[in-house]
Amino acid sequence: MNNKYVGENIRTFRIRKKLTQRELGDKIGKTWEMISRYETGKSSPMNQLNKLADVLDIDATDLLRDNGSQDVYSSNRIPFFNTIPEDGIFDRAKTYVFYPAPDWIKEMDRSVFAVEMKIVDGSNGCIFVSPEAEIKRGDKVLIINNGNLEIEVFQRESVNLIGKVLAQEVRFV
Prior knowledge:
Blueprint: H1 3-16, H2 21-28, H3 32-40, H4 49-56, H5 60-64, E1 77-81, E2 98-100, H6 103-108, E3 113-116, E4 125-130, E5 140-145, E6 148-153, E7 161-170
Parallel strand pairs: 1-3
Antiparallel strand pairs: 1-2, 3-4, 4-7, 5-6, 5-7
């Protein structure tokens, strides 16, 4: 078992949970130094996997996955939303799912994330959304309206604006 990728997984889930190494260590009865050693692969976290998973609100198998073959940390893996966050805010830290986007998508905008079309209009595929891109009149945008996601053509400022739609990927089933 490669402690390095297990450590990378611990670090990724810890950051998403917005915990410091000290906070995570306190919750499982270890020092922040030991959490650091787990994350860098210098010590084996195998005896602590269940405690770590409980604190991080994940399944222990998520920590064991060798994401190297799927390259979760590469530049083309982007956050993926298949549900609307409870507060309606599409924060990258609120998802543990990644989507293998084409390289050109990340080149267009580093803040891009993907949204499954089933939660927008019931179709198959996904849209790539940038919360930071400049939006001009006539651009397609993703909005939240009465708790539902909609794609519309941008005409004016909207308080429910999630971001600019950069592209759509259609899946045929």
